[in-house]
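Input (structure):
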């Protein structure tokens, strides 16, 4: 009696050959390039890994999790550099006269928020280090902390 392979070990498209490849986007297992192309067409899958997909906390501290974050951040940096070079090639000025610090443009507001100077002084006196999230980040938007001076 010939040895039969399990259906889970076969290509998800042709169900004939054992799978060799895994789709980075949806983890569909395929045996060949034609099956991969058919999978992308049938499932409307781009085949590219989604860098914003949720990762469990336990997986974040692993080398794989760190590589995931590093690759995501470097891809954003590459896209920004490419967009900046493209804008310069088209003659578009991007800096709008904003000062630079460590390679980052600094947005200057009209001044500190009400009570912010007093709060910073209080933190410095107590040797408390506060790192504020950048304006566009979701944590910054969710933060409802305020200073109530009595």
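Output (sequence):
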């Amino acid at each position: 009696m010939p040895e039969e392979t399990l259906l889970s070990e076969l290509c998800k498209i042709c169900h004939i050959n054992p799978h060799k490849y895994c789709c980075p986007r949806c983890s569909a297992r395929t045996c060949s390039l034609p099956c991969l192309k058919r999978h992308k067409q049938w499932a409307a899958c781009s085949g590219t890994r989604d860098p914003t997909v949720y990762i469990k906390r336990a997986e974040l501290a692993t080398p794989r999790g760190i590589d995931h974050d590093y690759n995501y951040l470097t891809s954003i940096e590459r896209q920004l550099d490419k967009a900046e070079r493209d804008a310069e090639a088209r003659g578009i000025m991007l800096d709008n006269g904003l000062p630079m610090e460590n390679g980052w443009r600094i947005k200057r507001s009209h001044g500190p928020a009400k009570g912010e100077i007093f709060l910073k002084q209080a933190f410095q006196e107590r040797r408390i280090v506060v790192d504020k999230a950048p304006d566009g980040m979701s944590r910054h938007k969710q933060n409802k902390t305020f200073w109530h001076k009595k």
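Notes: The helical segments are 33-43, 57-60, 63-89, 116-125, 138-142. The chain has a mean pLDDT of 79.
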